[in-house]
Amino acid sequence: MMTGVMSATLDDVSIQRAKSGDISALEDIYRAYEHMVYALARRICRAPEDAEDVLQETFLEVCRSIGTFRGTGHGSLTAWIKRIAASKALMRIRREKYRDTDELHEDTAPSRKGSDVALRMDLDAAINRLSDTARAVVWLHDVEGYTHGEIGAMMGKSVSFSKSQLARAHVRLRGWLGEEATA
Q: pTM above the 0.70 mark?
């Protein structure tokens, strides 16, 4: 898997080539977006193996559906691929039926060192403590910028479901992080 940011900026010609089935252009899309898709999947799914499966499933769907892609330009393709990846990750969570638990394993207990690095590690550990559904809602809303309506639609739930999951998750995160979260 590639590290860093997207390796290529895809122009409209590359996208049109991919839409016509050009394997080289489809490969370019994969290389340009694989890291972004894996990172999103890894945040929603707990296990790296699940994130790798989501990566594969996403690009299989991209290859199958690129002909129906209507947007033009780099930003639209990015949003389209992110939406597919988020949907595949959420489906994996439902399919695997992860146990919803807020129990903290001893090896992921947050430290209280007081530095920004420690707080970030605490935040990562706290986010990982959330149930799969709550973690997905937090990531999709707070990081990826999806609206509650979009999240609700992706999850097959209502807008209020998304809002309540986010509110409860924020309360839990603040509680787990203590005063550092509000500083």
A: no
Domain endpoint, select from 96, 130, 157? 96
Write the DSSP string, 39-94. Answer: HHHHHHSSSHHHHHHHHHHHHHHHHHHGGG----SHHHHHHHHHHHHHHHHHHHHH
| CA distance readout (Å), 120 to 21, 97, 114, 125 | 43, 28, 10, 9
Same domain, 18 and 92: yes
| DSSP letter for each residue of 104-161 | PPGGGPPP---SHHHHHHHHHHHHHHS-HHHHHHHIIIIIT---HHHHHHHHTS-HHH
Question: Does residue 4 belong to any structural domain of this protein?
Answer: no
- Whether 114 and 156 map to the same domain: the answer is yes
pLDDT digits (tens, 9 = 90+) for 8-38: 467 788 888 999 989 999 999 999 999 999 9
Q: Considering the domain boundaries, does residue 17 fall inside one?
A: yes
Instruction: Give the chain's domain count.
Output: 2
Residue 7 belongs to a domain:
no
Report the candidate in 86, 122, 81, 78 with the shortest Cα–Cα distance to residue 104.
122
Neighbour tally for 8: CB within 10 Å: 12
Q: Which amino acid is at 3?
A: T
Which residues span the domain enclosing 150? 106-181
| CB atoms inside a 10 Å sphere around CB 157 | 16
